[in-house]
Predict the 3D structure of the following.
Amino acid sequence: MIEVESLYFKYPLANDYVLKDINLKIGLGEVVGIMGGNGSGKTTLIKHFNGLLKPTKGFVRIFGKDTREESVAYFSKKVGLVFQNPGHQIFSDTVWNEIAFALKNFGFEEEIINKRVKWALEFFNLTQYKDMSPLLLSGGEKKRLCLASVLAWNPDFIILDEPTVGQDFLQKEKLIEIIKMLITQNKTVIVVSHDVEFIWLLQPRLILISNGTIVKDGDCKSIFKDNSILEKCGITKPQLVELYDELYPLIEQPPVDVIEAYSMILKLLRGLK
Amino acid sequence: METLTEIIRFINFSFSYSGSNSPILKNINLLIEEGDFVLLVGPSGCGKSTLLRCINGLIPHLYNGVYEGEVIVDGEPVKNKSVNELATKVGFVFQNPENQIFMFSVEKDIVFGLENIGLDKTEIDDRLSWVLRALDIEHLRYKPPYELSDGQKQRVAIAGVLAMKPKILILDEPTSLLDPRTALEFISLLKELNRKFGLTIIAVEHRIDLLTNVANRMVVMDKGEIVFNGCLKDVIENKNLNLHGVNVPPVIALQNYLRNEGFIFDAFYLNVKEFSKEIKRRLLEID
Ligand SMILES: Nc1ncnc2c1ncn2[C@@H]1O[C@H](COP(=O)(O)OP(=O)(O)OP(=O)(O)O)[C@@H](O)[C@H]1O
Ligand SMILES: Nc1ncnc2c1ncn2[C@@H]1O[C@H](COP(=O)(O)OP(=O)(O)O)[C@@H](O)[C@H]1O
Ligand SMILES: [Mg+2]
Ligand SMILES: [Mg+2]
């Protein structure tokens, strides 16, 4: 459980607060999306979720423990954070070692390490690169490597900052599949993203941030129907919600995926034939 | 009729990085004309960024490897020109904005390139205020790069390149870090530069729904080869695009399903408004 209570934060040399009075509870087994304009404070907020940043005022507790009381390493074991920029995360000489690195640090046994690394490489289509330097991977591949490294140590909370950057259709589908699988294992996945189409497919609990405060925390479907709040946060509509807007009341709900949209439209066209 | 002029041409071109065991680009033949707006797509790792590096000369001048065939930019082979010479013609926005911002403040970063090409002070000021406004980063003007959010960095990187007023603009996933509203605004800026000033644009983008209404050509790559190349409207109709890793926008996928089911449409609708209008028109007709 992550609990955020009256959190205010400002960067050391800055005058203004970047986060203002954030209150939030995130439990296990949830999918949470975080959206908001550039510079609204999303990355700053999630860096509080593993103790990387500490509140200027207020509290962040992870499984009941105040983030000021333990090291980042302690919290990282429970909360895995995958950064937007893979460059900040990749340090090892080979792809294999990159994934093994944290596992070794957390003191797993050799045999388990090997198994986990193998699994992660295969799952993310990276096996062919295992002996290569991570620096030579393409942007999308680097991104998958970061994800693989974090999932390999099996944290309870997985936080992804802009996970769809550089990812093609198949990788995005896979990402959704992974997130769904993690949820069935009662893990929590928190996704920060500007990709409205991806967020719509995930159908998460959605948190909208504007100018350092939470302006909405609720169900994705109802938020995407709320024009004024979307306008305020600079968020555009996914195509399937646009379709609903255009065709309402011919269709009564926004379809969650293309298959559903297809069957709705088919019904319309057939029903009246 | 407009006469079209060639601006970029790949001729029987192949490339492999030294150290990679198979070719990354294989027998590429590609002609891009002045004023084209090309959407380049394909699965992660297929060689898109590599192809772009061949246009601005990073390959072969900064990356070693096996270089076969020819890449011609603005009438001259890339291999005969220095990266600096090319940089005055080809603006390049990298996939990762951090590879692009060096100076101690946003303003200095933008001005640096302009001073380098010897522009006078008034021209520099004009361009600076234009891009600061165009990308809505006036409030960040005196900030150092390490104090910027990821999307803010991307905006600054774009601003720096636009200010140079290149003839060819290359964008490697330029909207990936922009928030949705800014992404839309940026795309309409690109459209304007393309339509009004004939700027040639090549953009790699996975969120292709953003570009389907503005690009005129689409090139699909897979495993180092070009698999489709043509007018965007024709290429996007292809039913197998998702097999090549392309994020087919929902409204396009929907039409593919309906066509499969035997429904015939006069046109291929690229946006939801037009598509919905057509559906409503049909329903009235049936009534
Ligand atoms: N190290 C830092 N020092 C000072 N200010 C910072 C620092 N990092 C970020 N900021 C500022 O804090 C604000 C919030 O930044 P943050 O990175 O959290 O935004 P974000 O919502 O993740 O944006 P984006 O969508 O662009 O990634 C921005 O105004 C940014 O300029
Ligand atoms: N500097 C390099 N040295 C060796 N291999 C590289 C280098 N850069 C990229 N590659 C490899 O070339 C392939 C294509 O990469 P890239 O052009 O970045 O793909 P894309 O942009 O389509 O995702 C990838 O398999 C990647 O691992
Ligand atoms: Mg961010
Ligand atoms: Mg790339």
Notes: Chain A has one domain: 2-221. The two ends of chain A are 53 Å apart (CA to CA). The first helix of chain A runs from residue 42 to 46.
